[in-house]
Specification:
Layout lengths: L54 H9 L12 H7 L13 H13 L2 H5 L1 H35 L9 H9 L1 H34 L14 H26 L1 H28 L8 E5 L2 E2 L11 E4 L2 E4 L1 H6 L11 H5 L2 E5 L54 H8 L19 H30 L2 H4 L12 H5 L4 H33 L18 H17 L6 H28 L13 H18 L1 H21 L8 H19 L11 E4 L11 H10 L6 E8 L2 H21 L5 E7 L2 H11 L9 E5 L11 H15 L3 E6 L14 E7 L6 H9 L8 E9 L5 H14 L5 E6 L7 H33 L2 H30 L3 H26 L10 H24 L5 H21 L4 E5 L10 H11 L6 E5 L11
Parallel strand pairs: 6-7, 6-9, 7-8, 9-10, 11-12, 11-14, 12-13, 14-15
Antiparallel strand pairs: 1-2, 1-5, 3-4, 10-15
Helix pairs in contact: 3-9, 3-13, 3-16, 5-12, 5-13, 5-18, 5-19, 6-7, 6-18, 7-8, 7-16, 7-17, 7-18, 7-20, 8-9, 8-16, 8-17, 9-16, 12-19, 16-17, 18-19, 18-20, 18-21, 19-20, 24-25, 28-29, 28-32, 29-31, 32-33
Amino acid sequence: MTFVAVPALKNCVSTGDGVPKENSPFINNTDDKGNSYDGTNMALFEEEMDSNPMVSSFLSKLANYTNLSQGAQEHEEADDDEGPKKKAVKSPQMGTFMGVYLPCLQNILGVILFLRLTWIVGTAGILESLAIVGLCCSCTMLTAISMSAIATNGVVPAGGSYYMISRSLGPEFGGAVGLCFYLGTTFAGSMYILGTIEILLTYMVPKAAIFVADKKEDELDALLNNMRVYGTCCLAIMSVVVFVGVKYVNKLALVFLACVILSILAIYAGVIKTIFDPPYFPVCMLGNRTLKNHQFDKCNKIEVIDNITVTTQLWNLFCDGSQLNATCNEYFVNNNVTELQGIPGLISGVISENMWSTYGPLGMLVEKSNLPSVEGGDPTQDIYMPYVVNDITTFFTLLVGIYFPSVTGIMAGSNRSGDLRDAQKSIPIGTILAITTTSIIYITSVVLFGACIEGVLLRDKFGDSVKGNLVIGTLSWPSPWVIVIGSFFSCCGAGLQSLTGAPRLLQAIARDGIVPFLQVFGHGKANGEPTWALLLTAGICEIGILIASLDSVIPQVYSCLQFFLMCYLFVNLACAVQTLLRTPNWRPRFKYYHWALSFLGMSLCLAIMFISSWYYAIVAMVIAGCIYKYIEYRGAEKEWGDGIRGLSLNAARYALNRLEDAPPHTKNWRPQLLVLLNVDSDQAVKHPRLVSFTTQLKAGKGLTIVGNVLQGTYLTKESESKKAEQNIKAAMSAERTKGFCHVVVSSNLRDGVSHLIQSAGLGGMKHNTVLMAWPGAWKQSNDPQSWRNFIETIRETTAAHQALLVAKNVDSFPTNQDRLGEGTIDVWWVVHDGGLLMLLPFLLRQHKVWRKCKMRIFTVAQMDDNSIQMKKDLQMFLYHLRLDAEVEVVEMHDNDISAFTYEKTLVMEQRSQMLKQMHLSRTEREREVKKLPISFSLLFSFSCALKLLLVIIISTNLLLLSSSYSLHRLQAQLIHDRNTASHATINDKVDAEPEQVHMTWTKDKLLTERNRNRECNANVAVRDLFNMKPNQTNVRRMHTAVKLNEVVVNKSQGAHLVLLNMPGPPRNRGGDENYMEFLEVLLEGLNRVLLVRGGGREVITIYS
């Protein structure tokens, strides 16, 4: 029975990345050794109790699960390092209403509703305003549905949206989006604080301004300076409240939210009152232009006082004097002054006029189109007149960007997931309910504002036409002050929620350790309050406040918008990926989701990003991309079972299935390497330069599998196997070799290599080339199995139609840090086996180690070949192959076999025969020792060892004697051997016939007879070595090796690398040891050599 460990249990030791250590709390728990199992009912499982505990023993841990994301218990391993555990301080455990619904409601019903929604309705019209609200609310609702599915698919500790994205899409995406969302939340907090100060100084206590402008042109600068000073003070107060604790934030939130709800109720009450008693808020119009009435009380040019016509304050604003004959503005003279009812009421029919949009450029006058107007005067002087004008250029996408931050508070609850009693239950219900509530409020507000308020007053952003009153305040009942106070506390509450959620988000990112330099912000007070993260958040907020204008912060608003949208986009993407992958762990309790809804939400987020501001969208993506690459490069590696990994697995499976359909075309062929790497007794890599050479060959971007074989059984060699795998991976990492490691444990090395050649890889991603090192110590080895394994590997690669690369003197090959200077890579093209010889130098020269090397191709011409024509044909062939190389044809004439070649062949065969005799003696001795008792075995082994030593001494003397023969003696012996070969063979057969003996055997007689036969065999072996004649086939092969070696050494001894066709092993296994001698002679005197044997197919083509 297997139990799956659930992360973040009460007694779980966290690793800091959200994944508990495997040795606690369930499987492989070695801490509770005192709880031994003594019962007999489950004796069948008693041997597994140390690693797999009984269900009854840990159900209490499951039942007592607590989601401690804040506080000292969240990262218990840090406390363990410091010493005894600290006394746990419980964080507030809030429910759905207090923990999610109210924070979301407070963040959503913020500054935009009270300060900008009326202006949006007046500018965009009711229809387009409904489109804006519907678009933004649909985006957030779809995101909330996706977020609910993710939040109910497991425990959601601290971090909220960051935790969901990082555990669904990986640490890189989670960190990038989480940091962007943190910045967006932080700048949104500064925007809410600026809204608070604007309401305070503009609508509540204008006289509290510290900086007062002497000139009209300086009014904006004075306002900005006042906002900077008051904003900094407000930020400091809010930071202190957040620092004291989230408990006090929640208490203040109730007060603030109560004021907001009262303000909204006052708006609805005012709308109802307009049906029978509209409030009196007149708007003064000059022609069809709206006037600011800050500096006049009566909307008249002149008035009659005591039968005397006198001018008004309005006259003085447009004329150069108060006299009736003063020079006045031409438009003022030509048009009459009229008063409009600013709030005509719900049944006035003004809704038809407010249906359509009225966009315009910066400085455009706010006009009522159906009023009479006579144009006149200098339009350039209008900016000095008390007209209400557009302070910014307006268009649809701008309004989308300004409105969307008002619906971005949907993450306020999830950001505080660590403070929730049951995050899986609270986040979906609270968030969706808050979005539904606020969507209804926004939609009804758009319709009611358009139905009750005059269009010119709606487009008056700051209420200048109604003596600076808040436009939405003119509609409320019983007093505009209800709206002013409500909007003030609404902005305060939203800013407070931002300062509460943002530090917790940063703390969760820092504690995961994915961004190394942020880890200091993971620390906090004993109860888990993020002190350092709060300080950083306050500092970033201060930067936003120093910008100081709610509308001139367009970059700030757009950056917040883009960061929020990016977060929502990835929440939708995470849900869609998890749904489509259908991973077994994807079992959300929230069932009302679908991948199509997630894709629609993701598309809406992406569309709004580019609709609102395409260049800020690109900037936000670049910032997120930089964070992503930084985390990928410097961040800690995490394995969180994310969906991107699952997506990669699905893509790999799909690609492998496609590759399986047909073999690759020659144009797509590239070396897929199986590197046979050896390790020493300590499992350290023997030839790390072979891994370096693999990296240098990877310009072909092919597959790399580094394989190793350990001799033994897996049960006894498991630890050695894992250690070897770790060492090989470390070597691959040091050499930057991208690939896979495969360590096989087999009863013998031969079978293990065979298994690797046959089974390494998967489907179409199998190796087609084997790379191995030349067995340099094969002559010194007492075990002939080493070079026999090498030859069998050559045979198996040939049988599997795989190419083979053998690197001789591999330890002298360059490392990846070396840079070879001017030199050559020499290719000796003796036989054609697919063109691999010409492809390999091209791949090597793509790497910076070999980049300066030139390529030379040598081919061998026989007596009957036309060397000149061969060179021309080869040059043309290389031209078609698009390869730059020097070409040279080397002529090898048929020469007589030299005495040196004959002598070398004879020595080779004598050595082979001697080794065979030694091997037979050893095999027979071991077989007889097994049959005898111990006392006889010891005596017999000692006797055999003495006689074997005698054979070795005699054989060595014979080899020395044979090597001192003169040339004439060798030639005479060769002629004599030809004449007597058949006769000697017959005599040997006759002598070799065993005697027919019939007797009764005893142990003594057995030993005597065996020793006598062995003495005879030793004498025969000595006589055979003395009379040995070299095989003519071996002589010819040795002649080829010697002559070809002379040519190669003469031409390529100074080359950086020599590539040479590798001759195949003999079909008859009896000549394997001679084959190794041939290769040794062929490569003698060369430093770096790569023997190449093709796989039996073309790997290079002249066609495109």
